[in-house]
Structure formats: C-alpha cells, structure tokens
C-alpha cells in the first residue's frame, strides 16, 4: 500500500506548545533529581530491547533468504515468538493518541502508518486504525507477512487463490477464484498471524471494531521494480457453484475476486514513529 508522507509530527495526548502568545521561552532552573527519579529511564530499556530484538531477528531470518523465498520454519518461529511478546507499550503507543481519533465522525477514518525500519530484505511498521477504519482487500506477492494486533478488536477476512482443480468450468470474465481462509473477529491479546506467498491468506482486509494498532513485518517489502506491486481487489460474487455443487455452510468457501483501484475515500498517511529506536549496527 502506498503511504502518503506527512511532514508534521503526531500530536501526542496532553502535549502543549513550547511557547504562548509568541513570547520568548523562559528558562527554568534545573532542579536536582529526587531520589528514584531515574526509574522511568530504567523502565525504558526493556521497551527498546523488545524492538531491537525484533529487528535483529528479522535481519538474521530475512537477510539470508532469497527474495520471495519463504524462510525456514525455525526462522518463521523465531520472528513470530518475538512478535508474540511485544506490547503496545514496547512501541510507545496508547489508544488515546491522535492517530486513533476520527476527525470527521461521518467521513471515512484516516489510517496512519508509522515507519520503523525498511531495507531490501524486510520492513517493519505499524498501522493505526481509528474505530471503523478499514484497510481494503489487497495482496502480498512473493512476500511472507507477520501481523501482530497490539490492541483493539478487528474483523479480518483473508483469501488464497484457488488451486487449479478447484476452478469451475465456467468463464470468470476477468475475475479469479479465491478460497476464503479466514473471516472473523480478532481481539488483542492474541498470537501473531503469518501469511505466505501461496498460503495462509495472502490477500486480506481489516476493519477496526474499535481503535486498533497492528505491527507488521513484511519480508521482502513491496517493490514495483521487483514485481511486488500492491494490488487491490473487489469481491464480485460470494455464492458460486464449483464442479456443479453449491457450497454449503461449513464447507470450503470460494469467492470471485477482481482487480480494482483503491476504494474511494481510502486514506493512508505516513507519520513519525515516536517509540524506541532501532539501532542498525
């Protein structure tokens, strides 16, 4: 997904302007720290360590893999186990931050993307969704993707392309058959979900039931020049016949997907990540 850059820093809850009425900023006498004042700085170390552990795990797992190749199971489990332990506090997020406010209650909520790190092998970022915010159905060509819901409740629907033997003997008129892999509600805390180039729900969409934050790892990241273009889709039919039999509840579900432009009103903007920094030695 293409992210529109934002030049401004996010407004943190409770922040105030550095000066008032255009006057000069008055310097205050520096006070001697009280006993125990160093505790907050000490508490910041585990948060920084959590983000750094994620970066180092991704670097070792993805830098050794060929572009588009799925890392070995041990590598997948390593990244997933690190993500499973990360919390919103580890990345400096709370639900009352401005990222999660709806500016216009009647309009389409703006989605904010916080960039943590990106190289040719992988990227790390966070999607911040206000209540009822939605990320439309899109794909991840040749990519392995980890998604960790940090807080909130969201509806998730995902698909994989149907196997050749599942394709009905009828013209699809530009659409392609996809198998529904997931269609339900996800609530934090929960395990990290993993999708693969050909399995696990490579195409998915999110709709926030309340304010949500999703930490994403993409390996490798989108790159039009390498054929990893983000394509959006619409569902053209939700009840079809396959091999002459109507799909029944409880059986595998298939839907017809057709390529589309991003939906009108979908607004994704980039903003500055304010949490613990990643050190790339």
TrEMBL record:
Q: Which family does it belong to?
A: Belongs to the cysteine dioxygenase family.
Its name, as the record gives it, is cysteine dioxygenase
Keyword flag Repeat: no
Q: Write down the chemical reaction(s) this protein catalyses.
A: L-cysteine + O2 = 3-sulfino-L-alanine + H(+)
- Regions of biased composition (Basic residues) lie at 25-35
Q: Where is this region: Disordered?
A: 1-44
Gene3D superfamilies recorded for this chain? Jelly Rolls
What Pfam families does the database record attribute to this sequence? PCO_ADO (PF07847)
UniProt enzyme class:
oxidoreductase
What biological process terms from GO does the record include? detection of hypoxia
């Amino acid at each position: 997904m293409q992210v529109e850059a934002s030049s401004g820093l996010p407004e943190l809850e409770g922040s105030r302007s550095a000066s008032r009425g255009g006057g000069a900023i008055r310097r205050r006498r520096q006070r001697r720290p009280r006993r125990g004042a160093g505790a907050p700085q000490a508490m910041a170390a585990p948060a920084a360590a959590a983000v750094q552990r994620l970066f180092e795990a991704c670097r070792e797992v993805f830098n050794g893999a060929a572009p588009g190749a799925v890392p070995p199971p041990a590598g997948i489990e390593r990244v997933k186990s690190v993500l499973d332990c990360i919390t919103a506090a580890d990345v400096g997020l709370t639900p009352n931050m401005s990222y999660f406010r709806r500016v216009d209650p009647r309009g389409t909520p703006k989605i904010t993307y916080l960039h943590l790190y990106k190289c040719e092998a992988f990227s790390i970022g966070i999607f911040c969704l206000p209540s009822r915010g939605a990320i439309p159905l899109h794909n991840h060509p040749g990519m392995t993707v980890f998604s960790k819901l940090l807080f909130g409740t969201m509806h998730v629907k995902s698909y994989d392309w149907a196997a050749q033997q599942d394709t009905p003997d009828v013209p699809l008129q530009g659409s392609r058959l996809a198998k529904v892999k997931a269609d339900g509600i996800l609530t934090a805390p929960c395990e990290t979900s993993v999708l693969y180039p050909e399995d696990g729900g490579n195409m998915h969409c999110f709709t926030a039931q309340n304010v949500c934050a999703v930490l994403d790892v993409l390996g490798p990241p989108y790159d039009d020049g390498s054929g990893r273009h983000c394509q959006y889709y619409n569902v053209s039919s939700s009840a079809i016949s396959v091999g002459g039999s109507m799909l029944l509840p409880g059986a595998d579900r298939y839907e017809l997907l057709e390529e589309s432009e991003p939906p009108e009103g979908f607004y994704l903007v980039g903003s500055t990540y304010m949490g613990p920094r990643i050190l790339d030695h």
